[in-house]
Amino acid sequence: MKPIRTERLILRNWEDRDRDLFFRINSDDRVMEFFPFRRDRAESDMFLDCLRDGIAERGYGFSAIEIAATGECVGFCGLKEPELDPVFPAGTIEIGWRLAPEYWGKGYVTEAAQAWLGFGFEALSLDEIVSFAVWNNFRSTAVMERLGMRRDPSGDFDHPNVPDTHPHLRRHALYRMTREEWEKQKRAAL
C-alpha cells in the first residue's frame, strides 16, 4: 500500500515495530470493552500478519495509524470486507478503527477515517461504505456521526459471531455513507 498522509498522520502498512502497540490495543480492557474476547500475544501477532498480508495483496485494509511528527503507531483505521454473511452481501466494505486509550479525544480516528473514506470513494470507486458498532458504543458511533455517516436503524443487527455468553454485545447499530453523500459533504467543505 502506498502510505496515505493527512495533516498529522501517516496511514501505512504494518511493520514489525508495531507489534507491541498492536498487542496492547487488542488485549486492553478499555479498548476491547465492546468485544467478547481479548487476544494474547500469539493471536495478536497472527492478526497483525493477516492484516499486513491483506493490505499488501489488496492495497488497503485495517492499516497502522502513525503520528507523522513522532513516528509513533497509535492504532489502526481502514477499510475491509466485514465477512458477516448473511448480514452483509459479498462486496460490502466497512470502515473501522481501534486506538490506544492515551490517544483518544485528539481527533486521530476521525482524521484517519476521513482519509480512508476519500480513498474508498475516489480510488476504489465504491458506491457505499458501512460502519457498525455495539449499539451503546457511543465513542465509535460518535465518530461515525462526525464523519457524516447516516444511521440506518432498519439495518441494525445481532452480530452472528458474538457468543451467547455476551448477549449485551450482540446488538449492533449500522451506519452508512454513499458516494453521493461523500461528494456532497466534500463540496460543502470547499
TrEMBL record:
InterPro entries: Acyl_CoA_acyltransferase, GNAT_dom, N-acetyltransferase
Family matches, as Pfam families: Acetyltransf_3 (PF13302)
Residue ranges constituting the N-acetyltransferase domain according to the UniProt record: 9-180
MF-aspect GO terms: acyltransferase activity, transferring groups other than amino-acyl groups
Residues spanning the signal sequence: none
Protein name, per record: GNAT family N-acetyltransferase
Organism encoding this protein: Allomesorhizobium camelthorni
